[in-house]
Design brief:
With 144 residues, the protein is an alpha+beta fold. The chain has a single domain (23-141), classed as Sandwich (Immunoglobulin-like), CATH 2.60.40. It is built from 3 helices and 10 strands. It has helices at 2-20, 26-32, 129-136; strands spanning 24-25, 41-47, 59-62, 65-69, 74-80, 83-89, 96-101, 106-113, 122-127, 140-141. It has a 6-stranded mixed sheet with strand order 1-10-5-2-8-9. It has a 4-stranded antiparallel sheet with strand order 4-3-6-7, with no helix packed on it. Strand 6 (83-89) and strand 7 form a beta hairpin. The longest helix has 19 residues, at 2-20. It is globular and about 45 Å long.
């Protein structure tokens, strides 16, 4: 009897922990987000869900170092020193974007599948806060 109770308790605990580890939305994550360091900038990377190409998930590479994965319906961020940055994701003619990051600044980088139906190319572009924030609100935060 005690063994059965213990086994049921373990299964219940595992299920409960599994429910707590779901992805967070942007709104939920904002409350848990650490303050941005004053001497660094924050770079958000996001990708909306598309009708095609959701199985393609290339690495996001910032200044030749992988920082995450371009997952549909997800976003993540990194804090970096001020300076010039180049980000690329996947392959294609438009898979590279460059920008300058200042201390205290937020930069938003969107990745998406290229416009051709039969392609595996990616588009990487720097967007503005008014474009990015509403899109990010519908996405899930994925820790890197």
């Amino acid at each position: 009897m005690l063994r059965t109770f213990r086994n049921v308790s373990v299964v219940f605990a595992v299920l409960l922990l599994g429910a707590c580890t779901r992805d967070l939305s942007y709104t939920e994550m904002q409350a848990l987000l650490p303050a941005q360091p004053a001497d660094k900038g924050r770079i958000y990377f996001y990708r909306e869900v598309a009708y095609l190409g959701n199985l393609i998930t290339p690495d996001v590479v910032l200044n030749n170092k992988p920082v995450g994965t371009s997952n549909p319906g997800a976003f993540f961020y990194v804090d970096r020193e001020p300076g010039d940055y180049t980000v690329f994701c996947g392959k294609g003619e438009y898979n590279v974007a460059t920008f300058t990051l200042a201390a205290g600044q937020e930069v938003y980088v969107r990745t998406k599948i290229g416009d051709s139906i039969l392609t595996t190319t990616m588009v990487t572009e720097v967007t503005t806060a008014p474009v990015a924030i509403p899109a990010i609100h519908n996405l899930k935060f994925v820790p890197r």
